[in-house]
């Protein structure tokens, strides 16, 4: 279900212009991210889609129909919404929270609760959390419940207003992965608001960069916005790391993966003049054993130096470079999809691939 | 004759015991019915105050003014305003309903203000219409703050009912006026003790009711055993 903004303006009585003549087409089944500094009208634009804010002029079409032709409450029941800080109802259990929209739409209680239980599973929460109250969950769990609640109506459109901004970076990354995984199954039309360009680039099929005063600065694929910012504002907003971020769109398929000497945790390592990668019985990397280190008897994890980030084969080259740069041995550990170590890369090798890449990254 | 002997004699009379039970029942009725009506009225006024923020100032001033009117004056004036007989218990009910509402308007507004805006916005985004959102989301969440105000109002009502005895409708207050006229202390003491006990019991019941209404408000801290976010 596509969404189209046609000459949409929102002006408040005090004269502030929140959104200025926005023209934008959001394609069916994609994630479109509205990104920009605070005061750029990104949340206002989002809230005009489900009529929580009414435009001063212009039209918003949802699947070709003007949203103002629908009853506001009924329109909203058909559009999933995830708000900042989850906005869960503190006085209802997790299960009732998720069942909110089905119950509002008049489903019978049992069916609504069954659907809610199903959705908890979909977003990766154990069923027993259903009986708890939101205050008994961690921030990340609350966000997942928020997503489950938005999915409950099974609406083709999902609006997400900075849904992951209140959780710590590690949890946020997990939630982002989860969203991408869900989207690959569900194929919703998702409009996502964030002030974080990294999040925008990570999640968006398309990114709309908005500037203060509510004007659209640039609309395109993340790679496009990073490589060809239209003006200084966009260039400044995507930041000085945009060259590095651009690596997110380059495959690392050509990087040579080299063998590395390994030792097994729990085995007898002997001695060596090289850095050796310690793996467990499943072949997963556990850390590094420094050169010439002596271990009495069995190798335990406390003998190891913590490893750097891991690079999963087949993902963008940014991860390979980061793995190499963050490794104590200067060797980035490459793992397969199951997390088994299959070799290492050096930063030099990664850079060679980047430099020899025909399109370049930032040119 | 010692006071205890006198008290024993007073309580020994079946007539007196009957009067005590009757006045106690009347006291409950005269204090608690207005409490319920006043809460409903205050919530309605609170809803108005939320819907029209500009009316808030006026509402709060009016509420304060109403509460300042001496109770006896109100008991006397009400019959001429609503056309009831002077000795009708409705007069006391109406007057105490007004006091309760006046006392609770501010707590109701504070309690509604304390509902997190994100929760209200998310209810709107889910497709709640305003009335249903108010009754099923905002109001239940206002209970913890509101409950404190209701406890004060219940005590205030239970004590004010006695004043009604001066116009002949005053629950346990009738024991005070009787005792005073007859220079007889036992009914006065019994009236005071029962008034205090009633206030205590009602307060206890309100605390229980608040706990029943807000099972979500005494939840332990988040469980730390978090595996996947």
Automatic annotation (TrEMBL), chain A:
What's in the keyword line of the UniProt record? ATP-binding, Nucleotide-binding, Transport
Q: Which EC number(s) are documented for this chain?
A: 7.6.2.9
**Membrane-crossing segments per the record:** none
SMART domains with a match to the protein in the record? AAA (SM00382)
Which GO molecular function, any one, fits this protein according to its record? ABC-type quaternary ammonium compound transporting activity
Q: Which SUPFAM superfamilies match?
A: CBS-domain pair, P-loop containing nucleoside triphosphate hydrolases
* The UniProt record lists the keyword Acetylation: no
Main enzyme class: translocase
Among the Pfam families in the record, one is ABC_tran
**Is ATP-binding set as a keyword in this record?**
yes
Record-linked InterPro entries:
AAA+_ATPase (IPR003593), ABC_transporter-like_ATP-bd (IPR003439), ABC_transporter-like_CS (IPR017871), CBS_dom_sf (IPR046342), P-loop_NTPase (IPR027417)
Domain ABC transporter span(s) in chain numbering: 3-238
Tell me its family. Belongs to the ABC transporter superfamily.
What is the designated name of this protein? ABC-type quaternary amine transporter
Species of origin reads: Prauserella flavalba
TrEMBL record, chain B:
The UniProt entry lists membrane topology as: Multi-pass membrane protein
What the entry lists under Pfam families is as follows: BPD_transp_1 (PF00528)
Entry keywords, A to Z = Membrane, Transmembrane, Transmembrane helix, Transport
Superkingdom to which the source organism belongs: Bacteria
Which InterPro entries does its entry note?
ABC_transp_perm/SBD (IPR051204), MetI-like (IPR000515), MetI-like_sf (IPR035906)
Q: Where in the cell is it found?
A: Cell membrane; Membrane
The residues that cross the membrane are 29-49, 55-78, 90-108, 152-176, 188-209
Biological process GO annotation list? glycine betaine transport; transmembrane transport
Keyword Transmembrane included in the entry's annotation? yes
Which parts of the sequence belong to the ABC transmembrane type-1 domain? 20-206
Q: Which GO terms describe its cellular component?
A: plasma membrane
Similarity comment: family membership: Belongs to the binding-protein-dependent transport system permease family.
Q: What is this protein called in UniProt?
A: ABC transporter permease
Q: Which organism is it from?
A: Prauserella flavalba
